Amino acid sequence: MGIATRATAAGEATAAALELARTLADGPTEAIQATKRLAVIAGEGTIPEALLREREAWKVVRQSATTQEGLEAFTEKRTPDFRAAARRAAGDQPA
User: Fold this and answer.
1) Which Gene3D superfamilies has this protein been placed in (predicted)?
2) How far from chain centre, in Å, is Cα 64?
């Protein structure tokens, strides 16, 4: 999210970037978007205002299909399929 998290050997940066992009694309989209949005505006306003923004964002995220998928996958001890959950929520695929 704009912060370097690892170094790569010469010539491997593109492959590493694509791997990270795939990981993010396969992740819980709403949570990633909310996290990035909150990080961008973190310095605006007071701490109580920031906490309020975080609470409001969490209300939306915790009701998302991808959050539900993550919780179900955890309890079922399986890898979550966030993309399929998002498609089901959009009505593009049967449950």
Assistant:
1) 2-enoyl-CoA Hydratase, Chain A, domain 1 (3.90.226.10)
2) 11
